[in-house]
Amino acid sequence: MLFNARWKPERIFDVLVGAGFSVETTIQDADSVRVTAKLIRTLSDTVGSNMRLLLVGLNPSFHAADAGYGFAGPGNRFWPAALEAQIVTKERDPVYALQTDRVGMTDLVKKPTSKAAELTDMHFQVGLARISRMCRWLSPKVVCVLGITGWRAALGDSRLSLGAQTVRLGARPVYVLPNPSGLNAHTNHGDLVKRFGDLLDSV
To answer: DSSP secondary structure string, 66-82?
Structure first.
C-alpha cells in the first residue's frame, strides 16, 4: 500500500489496524509511505466524526469476528441492554448505530480470543495508546470502555473501579462499565441497562 508522505506513519498504522489489518512493515521516504499489511480475522472499527459516544470493547471474540459486528456471542448482554437503555435504536448494526445514533465502536485490542484473559497487559497498553490517538483525532463526546479488567491492565492500576475515570483519552471523558460478556458473573442485564441509562445522562 502506498500513502502520501503527508500522512504520518503513526496515523497510517492506526487507520489500518482499525480497518482490520496487521501492519508488518513501514518504509517512509520524501514523497510517500509504503506499508505492507495483511487482513486478519478481526473486527473493523465503526467510527467517525461527530460521535456522541465511543464504545470500546476489550477485544473481539472469534464469534464476533466472523459475524462482522461486536458483542455477537449468543450469551453477550450488550445489544439487549443497549437497546433497552436506548444507547442504540437498532440491534446488531454498528453502521446504523454510527450513522443514526452517533455511537461508534472499537476495541482496545484487535486480536480475537475466546476469552479476554488470554491477552497480556502489553496488548491492552498498546491498544490504549491507539484509542487515545483516535480520540484526539475524532473527538467523541464521551468514551465508554466495556470491561474493568482490560482498563486496569491498560493503565497498570488494579485499584481502578467502574464509573467515571480521572484519566481522559484525547482530553475526552472516560467511563468504564462492566464487560457485557455472558462469562462475566459480576453483572446482569438489569445492571447493564441501569448503567447505560446513567451513561446517557453524560452524552
So the answer is: HHTSSS-STT--HHHHH
Q: 36-45, 143-152, 194-203: which range is least confident on average?
A: 194-203
Q: Mean pLDDT across the stretch 5-15?
A: 88
The HSE-up count of residue 182 (CA atoms within 13 Å, CB side) is 10
Quote the cell numbers at residue 155: 493503565
Q: Which residue has the cell 460478556?
A: 181
pTM for the complete prediction?
Answer: 0.95
Architecture label for domain 53-200? 3-Layer(aba) Sandwich (3.40)
Rg of the chain over CA atoms, in angstroms? 17
Looking at the chain, how many residues does it have? Answer: 203
3-state secondary structure 85-141: CCCCCCCCCHHHHHHHHCEEEEECCCCCECCHHHCCHHHHHHHHHHHHHHHHHHCCC
Tens digit of each residue's pLDDT (9 = 90 or more) over 49-98: 999 999 999 999 999 999 999 999 889 999 999 999 999 999 999 999 99
